[in-house]
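Throughout our pipeline, every protein is held as a single compact record rather than as scattered files. The remainder of this section carries one protein's record, kept here as part of the documentation.

===
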Amino acid sequence: MLALLADLLTLSRIGAAGVLVWLGITAGAASLPAAALVTVLGWTTDQLDGWVARLSPARTRLGVYDFPIDVIFYAGIVVYLVLSGFVPVMAAAGFMALSFAAWLASRRKAVAILALRVVDLTCAVVIFRNAAWIGYLLLVWLVLLGWIYRRRLVERVPRWFDDLRQMVSRRQGA
């Protein structure tokens, strides 16, 4: 049952991407509070699905697709930002093309994660510029999440930086 719950949480991010695109089409920039809520819920399900999956004695069916589903979710965020007029189409297209090219050249998850963090920062800038009160709530959420996942952060963040550092040092040595 826990594996099914983890899979449903994972799948919910595809739905969240669709909702973000719909919000961008139907309401544009006026839907920023709703889009921020959908985005935070998506980020939260990303944290919860792994936690639930680790509690489950059975393997999830979608665990191997978690990261590609995250990428779909983030694509929905970028499309929302473009449709709502927060990010110019050419800037988003260039960023997506550059990110994909960098991933193709490296084939490293760390490079893809770096691109996702750029989207996170873009979201933060958009939220603080247009609805600062949501930004402050988001900061509280991030601090709480950081405290809850502090052990995983201490383990994973340095590993991510090491992966990026190794990739750069190999390129410079080649």
